[in-house]
Amino acid sequence: MALTMLSFWLLLLALLSVSLTVQAKPENDDDLYSFVTLPGIRAVKYNVKYHGDGRDRVSPGHIFVAPYGQLTPEPPTKQYLPDQVGPCIYDDNGVLVWAGAAMFDNRNTFDFRAVNSISDGPHLSFVVGLEYDGSDRGFGVVLNNKFEVAHQIPMRADLGAFDIHEFNILDDGKTALSINYRSHSKVLEEFGRPSEASYVLSGGFAQIDLPTGEITHVWDSFDQISLSESVHVGPTTPASAPPGWDYMHPNSIDVNEAGDYLMSMRFTNTIYLISPDGHIIWRLGGANSDFTQDFTFSKQHDAKFIHSNGTHHTISFLNNASDEESNDEPVSSCLFVDVDSIAMTATVVRRYNRPDGALTRLRGNAQLLPNDNLLAGWSSAGYFTESSPEGDLLFSGAFASERYSTYRAYKFEFTGRPANPPDLLSFVWGTDPDPVTSDLTTTIYVSWNGATDVAGWNFYARGAYDSDRVFIGNVTKTDFETMYIARGYLSWISAEAYDAEGNVLSESLIHQTTLPAQWESAGFKGASLGRLLPDDPETLYSAKSDSEAGAEADNANANPDVGDPHMAALAALVRDLQGTVQLILFLMVLLALSLLAAAGGGLYAFFRRGRGKYARLPGKEEEVPLDRM
Which of 251, 74, 115 is CA-nearest to residue 178? Predict the structure, then answer.
């Protein structure tokens, strides 16, 4: 019995050990970027695909997403966490252009998009989510195209947190709309429980003046949308303490030129048109729809005006058709709907089913692009698709990791001009410093976080920090970070970004090349020679052979080297000094040989003298008198 119990506990311990081992196993990080110049950035990679002739038919622009791992804020930790979440821009090949996680300490961000309506140039906007402990309830952010904060707007205290669903900057560039949730106590008379009350969350919106951050208009649904419209709560739902039932769940807000507001409520399956004075003009969808419809939708997101003239409206939205608990249709879709408020009919004019046939149970958006294509953000794993007006799938993408989602995905044309210079690091590698057989090379890494139109990089070296730069080559930019390998040990390095027309955009700071800390153990032959001296770039790059120049051009797309008269004079002086040093060394060697010869002659004469005094060698038994020695 004791043996059986012992075996049981040993088996249990083994299983527990295996379980803990599995739980502690770290995730593979191949799905994350890793950079030499910006080691703190570990943004998720994007896999994109063009379908058919899609590359010729897509709308130009960059992809705007804000990856996050979990929706709720994570508690602070003493562990080092790289920048993985937050606003990110990718190009049309899925290559990272900008990672903004470091700006707000790796906090979740939402509704990240480009804004081209603000008067002084392109901008970016997004919502920074609340802090873990509630000490910061979130805020809206507007950046200029230098990635500097132009506006940081908190929500007014009585309106709760700055909600993550929407930060919609309007076409005037001066006004923004945001969602509000507000907690109220409500008697449950509608549910036949007149003696009972519950806290509920009403839905509303705030209109914000961007230059001042002031709230100029507020609307709340508390007295206008009844509990009976909700599909999320019912007569038997237990009463709730604060904050209360989320019985409507507003998730988007837009406004037309007449000042009427279009608002989506996910848990009533309804899109509402609200007048400037606050009354509900009509309901589309849900149990109390005012329209005859040729379609159904539910749990929708991102209702927006496409066209509106007072009596006829075209709107777009994502029909999730499901939530975490139920399915209403087999596939999610993006819908464009014509709403006739005279005939009171609503008709689908475009339908885009999710191409993989799946359901988007949470989040998502539908964006009409300038060329009339549709960009659909399906949220989970960052999945997005771009389709033609006819419904042809042209372009799709998803994060390389399913561990991340994005609330929305957008596509915009945007030009980023970071205020910070490019980041650059350089390292020397090799084992043989001999001038004839040297294998030393300088490896250069450069990136410019946020620059959207860098076509390539020019690289320069200097003999000293304050000397003139020498062109050592260039290379086409193909990724977020570019690597270039230059011949020789080059000590002071800089790089220059240029666009497709050859215009210089910016230049990095001058960086001193790093030497390997353990060079001797790696086989460096010059470790015993003392301090290694860098090569003179003017000498190295103006005197190279045609074959060397051709090899470098093939390897790095290098331009012809550009000479510098000052550096040439310095190089000539160095060569003269090298000749003088060689002459002195020759004379010193000659003198040493002469001294050795003289010493050898003296020794020879000494031994010759000894041989003249000895007539024969004494025998073992003979005693040699001292005077004969």
Answer: 251
Residue with tokens 């739980």: 23
In whole angstroms, what is the distance from residue 261 CA to residue 249 CA?
A: 16
Residue 433 has pLDDT above 80, yes or no: no
Average the pLDDT over 17-32 and give the result: 55
| Tokens 């507007």 sit on residue | 142
**Residue 511 · residue 426 · CB < 8 Å:** yes
Phi, psi angles (nearest 5°) of residue 124: -125, 150
pTM of the model: 0.82
Picking from 555, 536, 535, the residue whose alpha carbon sits closest to that of residue 547 is: 555
pLDDT category, 558, cuts 50, 70, 90?
A: very low
Rg (Cα) of the chain, in Å, rounded? 37
Q: Where are the domains of the chain?
A: 41-412, 423-571
SS3 category, 625: coil
Alpha carbons within 13 angstroms on the beta-carbon side of residue 534 total 21
Task: Count helices and strands (H / E) in the chain.
Answer: 5, 34
Alpha-carbon torsion angle 305, 181, 288, 316, nearest 10? 20
∠ at Cα 44 (39, 46), nearest 5°? Answer: 130
What is the C-alpha separation between 226 and 139, in angstroms, rounded?
30
Residue-level pLDDT at 134 = 84
* pLDDT tens-digit map of 486-532: 999 999 999 999 999 999 999 999 999 998 877 766 667 665 545 67
Is residue 533 pLDDT above 70, yes or no? yes
Q: Which CATH class is domain 41-412?
A: mainly beta
| CB burial of residue 38 (10 Å; 0-12, 13-18, 19+) | buried
What does the alpha-carbon distance between residue 103 and residue 101 come to, in Å, rounded to a whole number? 6
- Are 264 and 271 in contact by the 8 Å Cβ rule? The answer is yes
CATH class held by domain 423-571: mainly beta
Strands annotated E in 354-476? 365-368, 374-377, 384-387, 393-399, 410-412, 423-429, 441-447, 456-462, 470-476
Nearest to 343 by CA among 290, 283, 296: 290
